[in-house]
Design a protein that fits this description.
By secondary structure, the chain is α+β, with helices and mostly antiparallel strands. The chain is 44% helix and 13% strand.
């Protein structure tokens, strides 16, 4: 009979390894074995153990043998290989999930049956596995039995939350948040829980937890080379608790700290992880829903800020819907609700506020696109940081002030982006509301007063305490106000405004007077209905995708799979138009031209086209190939692209400016480390032509500006602007910095010099002084490199000095 048991055990191993536990034949044989007497089952288990000890099988077979010992021996005491099964569970604790067919819950069940507690990390793996797509009822039911610990370990926020046993009920209830929105019954139970604990106690407990969300895991999980970055993802089991906590916060009385925490949770949850995309959109959506349910200006302001920051479509749709709902309730337009949502943050004047903390005074002032705090002690003397008495006696108020500064910085960025989008929004304001919501608004006014506006057609900007025209005459009243744009303006007027800004030392929050204007070219008149102006470029796909989303374009990441996708598009409802930028994945070498997950690293660009906004969508294979229009049922099969000469000048210019930005920032040609041409040197010709070639429109603007700026620099005697380059005379070499890419050539023989932005050369980057606008990173890089190279003998960075002394 022993031989029969060994044969039975051998047959079971072969079938499990070949077909998995779910196979009907395997299940039939398992039923037969488990129907044996306890004594006979022990003989089968012993056969498994003997085979394991011989160690002649592969690792998957050895793993199957341990699992079969637990499955067949369920309910038997003294099962063999206890240490080996424990070691297997230890490995399991370092996994994100396991395949249901591996039946590791049988190993865990055997441990529990033997009176041994499961390690929290093992419990976490089982819970995550039960939530995966490939699951069965046995695994799900077993996971439900594991009620301790209440959350999964491995995440800093969850481990901190579990330290207070008195809040276990709160966490357990939060875990029940498994729907898109809280039901009435869930909300009723949540209110009862909050009332029992106290609203302040709940807020003071939960907000510090949320501040830890997204921190690195407390221990890393193992992952295969081609698996997503599970260590950067949210634990899906704990994610339900995060959703529940976000919902519970919406039941508390409004508080600025709560609003701030929910907004941060949205952004943290949408931060991308390799191979996964956004970490957890469900958590982000829960936080947005909570903000939408909260009353008060702070929540509305946070939603308006998120509308400028969120690019993930599903979450952005919720933000937009929340703002539209709030606008409809107030009988206002969406644009008006965004204006009214602009927060003040305690500022009592435009860009200024003063806070008294004990005997010390904190003077908060907005300078450019950031807030700074100047401290004065009780004697009125300026000090570098908050006095010790403030840190000791007013710690809570000091924390609130620091939070306020961070909020202002984030809001300034969001408001600047909102204002930049107004060029295509066709907005016109009545003078009174505009003055209140823009020019004299404590926060927005710090941006609006650095922009040029037209009042009843007369251009004006703020200086010396008043809105003034080019001649300096004050402008105090009017009917209609619009944002000034250089399109359609005489060159003399544009130049006059640039000189006015310099004379009054006004740094605009983004390019306006210096904004590039893209007019129709002769080549575009010949092609008629499409532009090749920005075709044949090689762009870093992920950077392009982020830029496109930030500028209001819709785009899908291209995967190296048999699929199709529309071009990058920007809808312009105010104009009834849709702009398209045609792109395709670049390369075919998986793992070289793609990420581990199969996403293309680079794109090749093609045409820019315009269509009516309701035209059917074009699509093309993600591998490349021709775009074709997919018909809309009941409509014409195709719609021709619109002739470029029919596109309004402002629309054409702004769309082309966006595309120029995509190329200028995302092109591999401006990467100083790509002088070898990238993989197999395929892009060397492109890199050279872009990195040192003719200037595009934005680079031409940069050249004109540098011609005015260079004479004012401390290194002016060593610099000249000639053609496409800023020439810098050092002690060791003379350098040519390309005005488009920032790449450098040096004497003799125009040798390439690689300096990666952000590195330290030892000489330090000097302040270039006044700049007429913010946001041109390439201009900042060029000036920084120029000041470094003008003192090339002081450079200490070995990666640079080794090139200088060749």
């Amino acid at each position: 009979m022993a031989h029969d048991f060994e044969a039975m055990a051998g047959e079971l191993v072969v079938k499990v390894v070949s077909h998995s536990f779910r196979n009907p034949a395997v299940q039939e044989l398992l039923d037969t074995v488990q129907g044996l007497t306890d004594a006979d089952r022990r003989r089968v288990v012993a056969a498994f153990a003997d085979r394991y000890r011989r160690g002649r099988d592969t690792e998957p077979v050895q793993r199957t043998l341990l699992t079969l010992i637990a499955v067949v021996g369920r309910g038997l005491d003294g099962l063999p290989l206890a240490q080996e099964r424990t070691a297997r569970l230890d490995r399991l604790s370092r996994s994100h999930t396991y395949w249901y067919a591996d039946r590791h819950e049988a190993l865990a069940g055997a441990e529990l049956a033997a009176g041994q507690a499961l390690a929290p990390a093992v419990v976490a793996t089982i819970r995550r596995s039960a939530m995966s797509t490939y699951r069965d009822s046995t695994l799900v039911e077993f996971a439900r039995l594991l009620t301790e610990p209440v959350l999964n370990v491995g995440e800093a926020w969850a481990e901190r939350a579990m330290e207070d046993e008195g809040l276990r009920a709160l966490l357990a209830y939060a875990l029940t948040a498994k729907a898109a929105k809280p039901s009435a019954a869930w909300e009723k139970g949540g209110r009862a829980l909050v009332d029992g604990l106290g609203a302040d106690a709940v807020r003071e407990a939960v907000l510090p937890w949320l501040a830890l969300v997204g921190r690195p895991r407390t221990f890393e999980l193992e992952r295969e080379v081609y698996e997503p970055d599970v260590n950067s993802a949210f634990d899906p089991y704990n994610a339900n608790a995060l959703r529940g906590l976000a919902w519970l916060l919406s039941l508390l009385p409004p508080h600025p700290d709560t609003v701030r925490a929910l907004g941060a949770l949205v952004e943290t949850s949408l931060r991308k992880a390799a191979g996964l995309g956004p970490r957890n959109p469900k958590v982000a959506n829960a936080a947005v829903n909570s903000l939408a349910r909260m009353e008060g200006e702070a929540a509305l302001a946070e939603l308006a800020r998120l509308a400028t920051r969120v690019t993930y479509k599903g979450t952005l749709k919720l933000v937009e819907a929340a703002l539209e709902t709030r606008a409809a309730a107030l009988g206002l337009s969406r644009e008006e609700i965004e204006e009214l949502a602009a927060p003040v943050y305690g500022l009592t004047q435009v860009g200024k506020a003063e806070f008294r903390l004990g005997e010390a005074t904190a003077q908060l002032e907005v300078r450019g696109n950031r807030a700074v705090t100047v401290w004065r002690n009780g004697a009125g003397k300026q000090v570098k940081t908050a006095p010790a008495t403030v840190r000791r006696d007013h710690a809570e108020e000091l924390g609130e002030l620091k939070g306020l500064v961070k909020d202002i910085d984030k809001s300034l960025s969001a408001q600047s982006e909102r204002l930049d989008r107004q060029f295509l929004a066709r907005r016109r304001w009545a003078y009174g509301p505009w003055r209140e919501r823009y020019l004299d608004h404590p926060l927005v006014g710090t941006l609006a007063r650095r922009l040029i506006w037209t009042v009843d057609g007369t251009a004006a900007c703020f200086a010396d305490g008043a809105l003034r025209t080019l001649t300096g005459a004050p402008l105090t009243e009017g009917a209609a106000v619009e944002l000034w744009h250089p399109v359609g303006r005489e060159p003399a007027e544009v130049l006059a405004w640039r000189e006015w800004l310099e004379r009054h030392a006004v740094t605009q929050p983004f390019k306006q007077a210096h904004r590039e204007v893209y007019l129709l070219t002769d080549a575009e008149r010949k092609t008629r209905n499409y532009s090749n102006r920005f075709a044949a470029h090689i762009l870093r796909q992920h950077q392009f995708n982020s830029l496109a989303a930030a500028r209001g374009w819709s785009n899908r990441l291209r995967l190296c799979v048999d699929d199709s996708a529309p071009p990058a598009t920007r809808e312009l409802p105010q104009w009834g138009l849709r702009a398209e930028y045609w792109i395709e994945g670049e390369g075919q070498d998986y793992g070289v031209d793609t990420t581990e997950a199969g996403t293309y690293l680079r794109l090749r660009t093609d045409q820019v086209r315009f269509y009516p906004i309701d035209a059917p969508q074009n699509r093309a294979g993600t591998y490349g190939g021709r775009y074709a229009m997919w018909p809309i049922p009941g409509r014409r099969r195709t719609v021709d692209p619109l002739p470029l000469k029919r596109i309004p000048e402002l629309v054409l210019s702004e769309v082309m400016r966006d595309v120029d930005l995509f190329v200028g920032v995302a092109s591999v040609g401006n990467d100083p480390t790509w002088s070898d041409g990238g993989p197999q040197g395929r892009f060397r010709e492109y890199w050279n032509s872009y990195g040192f070639g003719e200037l595009n429109q934005s680079a031409e603007t940069r050249r004109v500006l540098l011609e005015r700026l260079v004479p004012r620099l401390a290194i002016a005697d060593r610099c000249t602007v000639e053609g496409r380059f800023l020439h810098v005379r050092g002690e060791l070499h003379t350098y040519k910095i390309h005005l488009g890419s920032g790449n450098i050539l040096m004497t003799p023989n125009d040798q390439y010099l690689c300096i990666v932005p952000g590195g330290s050369g030892g000489a330090g980057a000097a302040d270039p002084g006044y700049l007429p606008f913010e946001g041109d990173r390439t201009l900042a890089v060029i000036l920084s490199k120029a000041m470094l190279l003008a003192k090339d003998t002081e450079i200490t960075d070995p990666t640079i000095t080794s090139q200088l002394r060749r």
